Amino acid sequence: MKRNVLVLITVVMGFSLAAIAGTISGQVSGVAGQSVVYVDAIPGKTFPPPTEQPVIDQKGLAFHPHVIAVQAGTTVAFLNSDSVAHNVFWASVGGNKKLGHNLGTWPQGQKKSFKFDTAGVVPLFCNVHPEMSAYVVVAPTPYFATSDLAGNYKMENVPDGSYTVTAWHEGTKSQSRPVKVSGDVKADFALSK
Amino acid sequence: MLNRQANVLLFSILVLALFASIPIPVAGRANLGHPIYAIPAFSRQYGTSCSTCHVDFPKLNDFGKAFKDAGFKFPKDDETFVKVPPVMLGSPAQKELWPHTIWPGTIPGLPPIGLRFNTFLQVVGRNRNNFNLQTPGDPTAPFIPRTDFQTGLLSIFMAGNFGDDIAFWVDDDISVGGSGADGGLGDGYLKFVNIGRHLKLPTDALSLRIGQFELDLPFSPARSWNLSGWDIYDQANISSVNSILGLPTVSNSFAMSNAAQGVEFSGGHSYRGYHYSLAIVNQNTSGGTAAGNNVPPVVAYTSDSNFKDIYARLSYRFNLERDPASRNEIQAAGASGPHDHTYLNLGTLYFYGRSVQRFQGQDGSGVPRVLTAREPFYRMGADFSLNYHTFNLIGQYMYGRDQNLLPLLPAGFTAPTGLIRGSPASFSGGFLEADYLPLPWLMTIMRWDAVHSTADLINGIGATPDSDIGSFVSPFHATRNRFTPGVQFLIHANIKASFEYQIRPQQIVYDPTTGALLTGAFRTNSAIAGLDFVY
Fold first, then answer.
1. Would you call B512 helix, strand, or coil by DSSP?
2. Which of B182, B128, B189 lies closest to B158, judged by CA?
3. Beta strands of B254-342 (E only): which ranges?
4. How far apart are alpha carbons B346 and B343 in whole angstroms?
5. Is B477 a residue whose pLDDT tops 80?
6. Interchain contact, A87 vs B338, CB within 8 Å
7. Which of A4, A47, B193, B529 registers the highest number of CB atoms within 10 A of its CB?
């Protein structure tokens, strides 16, 4: 009986939330390839870190994926699938060089993890293969999306409200704009190098 | 002992002759055209930067050494790194049909071609022509310009792997010094890697290289990262002119940096543990190998293709990382990422050959005949390389000795009738070099080269205790001696700007006739700037 009540409450709350959450979608134009769009920090709001642990693989002298977006507080695992020695380091987080870090070296088939607590873009490098690079975009909120190759993105379950939404793309200046969410809204970005 | 005047005369003649035959780093013929090889073809094939294999190209890092040892491929799982798949010359399944089909192989998916060009500016000290004071009015005296722009090499090189651990390399200098096609073939060989597996030997214990190749020297002149070569590897051995023949009785222009034709057995690794090579190559007396014939019956310095020279090298590298697991890896692991090992490499080399010269003589009846002098020679040396992080100290010592057969001229004869042993012509010397990379794109260099050659001293190429006459590259007490600080900048991974300054000890010049002092103490220093790019 007690369990049924709990389930009912959860379902009702879920429907209620859905009723007040919307979607932000649109296109990032002017650039080729994947972009990341995220809702900037919301004053007075904090979000629990997710438990899932995304993996960035080093394979064939490349990082896979090349761009990944995570929520602040996420632990990312770095896997070395190559038979050659690799390294992962970043010189800054969001431009803050004090947050640079070097994960060192580990053998083929093994992982090393790191928790990204600070929001910002983290450019990843390998110190022996300069052609290797990747980006971890650490979003301050759980509302973020990675676009497809054509630049289309969609962020779901964004609570109604007014936010600042930022679009980021490798090698361009990020662009931010205010977005008022009330149901489904469109927000396009035109980035340029 | 020849008097001073005769010495000076011989000096003048031989300087000109030797300048044409010995690569000397200045004096109008800068030794700037080293075939420097970084391999853009591999960058294309693997989609990776030059710095995967090179520290300040063409100097190899530990991974580059392993790549080369493996036959120009990744030591493990090579196929997973190749971005451009090779073209199959027959399905791998065809192996099961052999001998009723051709064993299948591969060729690189892209033409494995790289090109390289370089250009230089040389600035020589204002005392550069002081030695011409010894021969005033001589129109043949070498004049060295104060500044000189020079084009270096346009080279093409092709390298890769045909599958089944068969590696290949061919390089050719298409243009040298701005001229047309006068460079010629550098190396051209096939290397059958790890053939010891067919004999159940340990992995990489035996490989076979066939063709024309640079000897397996401790520090490859072909891959030298310096603007000027290491003098000891370019040292030839040429004795004084014999008064009976009017020719030097040792004229062995073989230098260790010469390309050799033959076969080479090798094994081990150059990034850890032992490494050896044993090469059997054509005789190379006159700066070129024999053309396939035996010694022609003409008066000349020549080579005998029936005689084979032997070169052997053995080295052992002690990787000194604290972490035992890391010592055996290709690159050392560290908190800041993989890097070259801290290591000490010790090695030795030995070359045994025979030079041949033919000159006009006569038999006991006075009938003219050609006398053939076959003069065995050897070179031996020891070397080391000490590496700590981005600091590398290398050194080479070498000793060379040629048997010296002199003409026997009995009384009453007008030409020699035979040969007797004379004092051997010998030389010794080497270099020490320290390289340090404060930044990945910046390398600083300090180097000392010295060569002491009795043959050169007799020829006046270098001052003797009796005759303080040097030459442009030959200060007192040594025939070649210089300190060479340098700095190199990688503008990109494939473009390099290099600078070096050659500092030679003080010299003085005497009047050849009167012995009067013609100059005060001076140095023949020179500066060289170079731009190098591969693509």
1. coil
2. B189
3. 259-268, 273-282, 300-302, 308-319
4. 10
5. no
6. yes
7. B193
Nearest-CA neighbor of B270 among B57, B39, B63, B54?
B63
Which range, of A45-59, A147-161, B271-285, B362-376, averages the lowest pLDDT?
B362-376
Alpha-carbon distance A30 to A115, whole Å? Answer: 32
Closest residue on chain B to A100 (Cα): B336
Assess B439–A contact: CB distance below 8 Å, yes or no. Answer: no
| Best mutation target, A84, A103, A127, to test chain B (most B CBs within 10 A) | A84
Q: Are B349 and B380 in contact (CB under 8 A)?
A: yes
Strand partners, A111: A79
Show the domains of chain A with their CATH numbers. Answer: 22-44+145-193 (2.60.40.1120), 48-140 (2.60.40.420)
CA atoms within 13 A on the CB side of B354: 16
H/E stretch holding A16:
helix A2-20
Residue B102 CA to residue B163 CA, distance in Å, equals 14
pLDDT tens across A84-128, in order? 989 999 999 999 999 999 999 888 999 999 999 999 999 999 988
Nearest CA in chain A to B66: A84
Confidence label for B290 from pLDDT (cuts 50, 70 and 90) = low
CA distance A182 to A32: 30
| List of chain A residues whose C-beta atoms are within 8 Å of the C-beta of residue B76 | 83-84
Write down the pTM of the prediction. Answer: 0.85
Quick check: helix, strand or coil at residue B330? coil
In whole angstroms, give the CA distance from residue B295 to residue B249. 17
Q: Is the ipTM of this complex over 0.85?
A: no
* Sequence-distant (≥ 6) Cβ neighbours of residue A149 within 8 angstroms: A32, A33, A34
| Minimal Cβ distance to A104: which of B48, B63, B337 | B337
Cα angle vertex B482, ends B478, B483, to 5°? 145
User: Which residues from chain A sit within 8 angstroms of residue B333, using beta carbons?
Assistant: 85, 104-106
Q: How many CB pairs (< 8 A) connect A and B?
A: 69
Best residue in A105, A106, A108 for a mutation probing chain B (most B CBs within 10 Å)? A105
Task: Name every chain B residue with its beta carbon within 8 A of the beta carbon of A110.
Answer: none
Structure-block tokens of residue A128: 């022996």
- A69, A38 Cβ separation under 8 angstroms: yes
Interface test with A, best of B336, B390, B441 (most A CBs within 10 A): B336
Domain count, chain B: 1
* A-contacting residues in B 472-501 (Cβ below 8 Å): 493
Domain limits for position B109: 4-534
Question: Which CATH number covers residue B59?
Answer: 2.40.160.10
Label residues B325-346 b or e (16+ Cβ within 10 Å = b): ebbebbbbbbeebbbbbbbbbe
> Which chain A residues are within 8 Å of B338, Cβ to Cβ?
85-87, 105, 127-128
Please tell me if residue B74 touches chain A, with a CB cutoff of 8 Å.
Answer: yes
Q: Which long-range contacts (CB under 8 A, 24 or more apart) does B297-300 make?
A: B297/B358, B297/B370, B298/B358, B298/B370, B299/B358, B299/B359, B299/B360, B299/B370, B300/B357, B300/B358
Tens digits of residue pLDDT in B413-463: 888 999 999 889 899 999 999 999 999 999 999 999 999 887 776 665 554
- Give A110→chain B minimum CA distance, Å: 14
Buried b (16+ CB within 10 A) or exposed e, A73-105: bbbbebbbebbbbbbbbbeebeeeeebeebbeb
Task: Using alpha carbons, select from B470, B479, B374 the residue that is nearest to residue B427.
Answer: B479
